[in-house]
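Figure S4 source data
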Amino acid sequence: MLTTKLMIPSPRTSVVNRSQLLARLQRGLDRRLTLVAAPAGFGKTTLLSTWLHQTSYAKAWLTLDQRDNDPLRWLSYLVAALQTIEPTLGQGVQQALQAAQPAPSEQLLVSLINEINQIKQPMLLLLDDYHVIENQAVDDMLNFLLEHMPNSMHLVVATREDPQIPLARLRARGQLNELRVSDLRFNLAESSEFLTTVMGLHLPDQAIAKLETRTEGWVAGLQLAALSLQGQHDPSSFIETFSGQHHFILDYLLSEVLHQQTPAIQAFLLQTSILERMTGPLCDAVLNQTNSQTMLAQIDQANLFIVALDQQRAWYRYHQLFSDLLRQRLAQQLSQPELVVLHQRASHWYQQHDLLLEAFQHATLGHDYQRAEQLMLQMPLHANGFVSAMLNWLASLPSAVLDQQPSLLVRYAAILLVLGQTSGVEPKLQAAERGLQQQPDNEHTRDLIGQIAAARTTIALTQYQIETIIAQAQRAFAYLHPQNLPFRATTNWALAYAYHVRGERQNTNIALSQSIELSQQANDTFTLILASIGMGQLHESNLELYRAAATYRHVLQLAGEQPQQIIYEAQLGLARISYQWNDLAAAEQHAQQSLHLALQYEQGIDRFILCELMLAQIKLAHNDLAGAKRLLEQTEQLARQHNFVQRFAEIAHLRIQLLLREAKLSNAKQLATSHQLAFCQAQIALAQAQPAAAITILTPLQQQSQANNWPDQLMQACCLLALAYAAQGQNEQAIEWLKQALPLAEANQLIRTLLDYGPTMQQLLHTAQAYGLHSSLIEQVLPLFTDNSSIKPQAKLVERLSEREIEVLQQIAAGYTDRQIGERLYLSIYTVKVHARNIYAKLEVTNRTQAVARARSLGILPQT
């Protein structure tokens, strides 16, 4: 974190009095946004820093640069800026931003805005140099902040270009205060004051008027002209020949200013121009000298387009235009090897001061692939800012360079997988393999072969290719260096998934334990969370629900206060456990939180299906058959639309439970047969009064579950066998099977497992009591059958739509696509989709057509 980005520039001792503009800025504080937009060199920063030192508002300053196009980095600095007003503000958001995979930006902004709302004193936040922002995602975040920030907050944006936010709407609402070129350019009186008082020139009025006319009041042009005039014996002749287009004037004056400096100053200016920000020790390192702080002070005093970034005037930056020209000249004067040396020195200095990102960027700017690669390997894959910096650099490299550096290709593939992107990964892995064939067989190349195999385990996992996961994992372990802990941890996690699918639970436990241990040693929180979630799921399968719940809660602690996408499975696990404990309110809360997180994944990821199935199951538990059916149909439609084949059986299982409740046994049987759901087939046989057929199905399932030590399936088989023998009138045998199930159910409080079997289980439990089988769980569950059956779905009034949701609904009714709605309402496409889902949920519909029809029937939309 570069704190100099947060410092309000010190006002110069001698500036032009611009009282009218300062008054306009002060009057604009009753609006939401002040926009100061003009090309470079019109005095935006000087005016604003002067104003901020005069206003009584609490204020925060943030100077932006190109790296702030990373939304998470932008938000990190935004929080840091606000903390200069209130140090405790946004600490939860700051913690979340350091997590392995932070929550969506909009969600973090909501949390931040809520905290800002607690601060009652008037405050303003100034974003300087916003024109460097080119990422629409950052523009969307700024727009969200503008829309939702409290009235006590005022936002100021200084930029060369208008930001991509709905300025027209703000202007129409009277929420925008604007200062443009016409406001900022110097008039004749201000030009005279500037040239005479600030720059120390004594020119005749006619000469000043000519300069003012030819520069059109452009402050930087006047300053550059004044610097050139300081060495002129005949100012009038210079002014007479001073003409040309705007950018030509700029080039000419900068050349004249630069050439009039001493060789030492020129060399200093040129060589330090590679730096975004400068301080004496950093410049000393780059230039291999010892007097840089003194030279910076001299340049500052000479007004050579340098800006002090702190009160102590230790850190500086060049005016952007000046910096651009200096870099252009530097590239012309120095050879590529000489430039590389400068960037290498800067890179070394940043690394010594624990600024790995800046060190990496200077290595890349110097085309020092080897050093950049070394630094990249030290940079965490999951930290803010690092991933985008590495990915951008790798994407910029020519194929010829990548093909000669297999390690870069492997790293490229790993970064894409971290971002959840699998397309394009395999070709990079194959290219790396071809490159490795030309490399000597040593520890390094073997480790890269192992990393390639590890990457393929992850790809196979996303495609549910179990045998491929196992084969590639074995290859990865054979080649990975013993100390490559992160890749070994990730490989163990993927292998555990494959073992779990195959029912090899002991091997699953071993692999997960290894993954957890290795990720802890490597300080790899991302993989630690994944492996811990896997361990929680294993505990669930083994009917160790209390251990599972504790594991899932630990995952939430690892993730910090703000949720992350990957922890949706922990929330879903807590939903399943709460359901078993018959805490349906908690189950629904966890399931909703899980669904919210799962929906953050890119389209085509099936994470949300299981969340919606859980919510449908909860509706079934409430006897809301219509609600469960509606949600289940919506979920199945989405699964088929996206061809989520791996989820079809789980959807079918819940559909069968619904069909059994509706007594549609023929449909249920057909579905169970087509998906080969043996336990469901047994349930259907019991419902059809065919207990012998059920016993035939269940007996081998019970034997297999017991032989493999699968407690969850053993519990299910024993319960159904008990019901089957009871249906045959063989109560003693039924009680014996129930005796095997009850200890498992009692130890884990599996209340819903018993309740969901309905009246036949209720009758069996009464029979068990009559036979002298006493259990605290039976006594706890029996009253719930009556209570449960009395729960009826209540007719609900439609939850009120928000104003924004009504706006979106109106656009839907008009036939606009999600993208078109986003463009018309200045919303991101993701935000439009979230609003649409909320609308469907509130109106209890599943698609656009139903939503419009329902809204018209309720009077929300006019009848056609």
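Figure S5 source data
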Amino acid sequence: MQRKLPAAALAGLMTIGFLATPATATNTEEPSAAPAAAECTAEHFADNQHGSQFFDDVRWMQCSGITTGYADNTYRKGTDIDRGESMAFVYRYLKPEYTPGEATFPDVPEGKTHFEAIEWGAAEEITTGYEDGTFQPNRSVTRAEFASFLYRAVDPESTGEVTFEDVAESSAHLEAITWLASEGISTGYKDGTFKPHDNITRGEVAALMSRMDGVLTEDEPGEPEVPEVPEPEVPEPEMPAGEPVLLTDPFLQDPQAGQTNVAWFTELEGQRHYVVTGDVYGLTAEDLAPAVKQAEASTNGVFQSEAQNVQFTVTLADSMRMSRTAEDADSVLSDAPAEEDGIVSRDIFRHEATVTGLEDAGEVDYRVVSVFEGTPVLSDTFALEDAKTADEDANILLTSDHQAKNNTPANLEWADTVIGDIDAVFMAGDLANVPDRASEWFDSENGLAFFRGLQGNAGFEAPNGETYNGGEILQYAPIYTAIGNHEVQGRIDGMDSLDASFNAPVPREVAEAEYEKVADEVNPEGHTEVKEQWIEDNSFSTTTYEELFTLPESEAGGERYYAATVGNTRLISLYSTRIWRSDLNNEDPAARQANTRYQEAQANLDDPMAQGHGSFPFESLAVDSDQYRWLQEELESEETTGAENVVVMMHEGPQGLGDNVAPHFSEPTRIEEKDAEGNVTGIRYEYEAADNKLLTDLTPLIDAEGTAVDLVLNGHSHLWNRFESEHGVNYLETSNVGNSYGAYHELSGDSRPLPGAPWDAENYVAQGSPGGLEPIVPSERPFASLVDPDQDAPYVASNDYSVFTNLDTQAGSVTSFILDTKDPDAQPEVLDVFMLD
């Protein structure tokens, strides 16, 4: 069937000769620019500025009326495009004369977004939908599927003969992909692959369509055009300077009696920053100017104004530049660095003020103000208060493992709605994925940045068709966190990507030994700070995490492990995590190609800095460690023994059904395999069951007769399960927030992958909890077992259902809610309720 292409497009069809490749591909020839053109007065999308990737292409789409972007005036180039949007883009480009009839697909009824475009696509046989009769408009589009959409719309006479090693001859998209390649529309990747199953982004689609139009229409007059913008010359790769805006809303930190801290972030340094409390709603910069001058002149940076019957207080903030934040080619940003640029430092500035005088004040309105080159930028109005007293009720959100996962914004939005006034957040680690990547915290264009989700600013378009903003939580409630493995950045020295760095931590003692070998070269004057920085850059670091948050501190561990009181509840946050490595194992040392939890790659046997050293703990919890001794004293303190509720929070806990509780939490036992002459031919690691520090050292301390501990909250395995010990200690993992990797239990039918010989099978647990406790079936809304439908499963491990949990401190109740994220009309249900003794 011949499509109704513009006449000029039909005339130019046989002259196609342009490229449209994804950002990570390597072009083999210079791509043509987007069509140059007539005046276009539409306001530029906020995330499509001169010099950014796909600027010309997206501007052409905008000026051609193919897209109007989102309500916040963004285009979101890094976001995967869905099937409905894809069909709409092609439809608007071709502008066919078409009147839809009755709905073809049950999931795209008349009146649904993109209904006309989808009906046209079905009528023209550009799409036939799925075997079940649905179209699934919100499903992401792969590179192969979009190739077929264009191919069927153009209906060319030949497909060419170019092939890719990852596109099978039996593929339904073979003709479309070979046509793209033969006409030079997409040359694939430099490794000879097309990656047909990878999702295609809105930016890549814009590039494909605009360059196609430029060739097909031969730049005819009257078409929307975008003037070419020369690339600025820079001496070395650097991130753009940013805009004079607040990168986050303000958030609360470490409240104490009569005071609390307020922090926020910007990309520009600015001249001054301050918090305004009191009668702040409706205040303008002009209203604040006199008070700011008085605050700057005061000895403590605080000034109270009572002018015109309006009372407010100005508190100046201290500022700092984050020391390690960066971006790379994997950052989900329109202006992400190119792959060849490696890791590019990004300026992020943190501002913080301690607001005092809050004794008996209750909730106080506040705003923050940052001044950039004389222009003030004000936040919205929120409310703060000082620390909760023991007789005040508090609702605490228990969560973990957000990690930029798709269900997280919906989870947080519903948590904010259902729980209501959240007074604190206890988060058991894995806040983001790569801690030094700034965009994962602040402004990743996929709608999944950490702060945006917890501040109600996510704007994430979920697969169910709904847009979720997350919850306005941190503006009103302090967050208390534990370090997970995703808060630990690995060795940065010599790395060319943040992912490579994250996956390459080196034990501190190994880096220290290496430093001694090179000290004369790298630190000839013997400066202590140079030595410490070299060791950090060549081992691992929690610096970005520690700079992001103001947390209580312990004398032994600083912010890495600490204790805090929220109302009648004592929180003890531990540093319990280790490097995650894959479970690959090979009995033949010569065949080992990768560093994993069980083995070293054959190529790295002579280089300790290139080895993985197994899944080693970042901080010890052994009986003789600093952390253990501190915990021992904390459990005996008046703050803990006198608290109504005591919660021990840690990323990796002693009980659990997930994959990440294995292998045992022990120091890897290094085994050197040797030949007959004594030469080392391989290195492998065992994890002794009898040396699991969470069971042999920690558990007897926190779970003994008469213990003060009521709840152990952990994360790490992306599921919900709970246990109770004979001493009344509850163990809860409520980390099925954004996704899951499964539960390993006899009622799931799944078993953890275990290493074969020569590894000792006695050290590895295929199913159940390594801690030996039996999981408890949810009290209110259990799921039937996959193995035996007559039995209820004692866990939730699902990529469709998401769980959030509330601790009501006065009632002593822990309530978990479950949400079906597939159904946009679903509301959370109570999953489980239990009481703290």
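The chain has a mean pLDDT of 88. Residues 605 and 682 are 7 Å apart (CA to CA).
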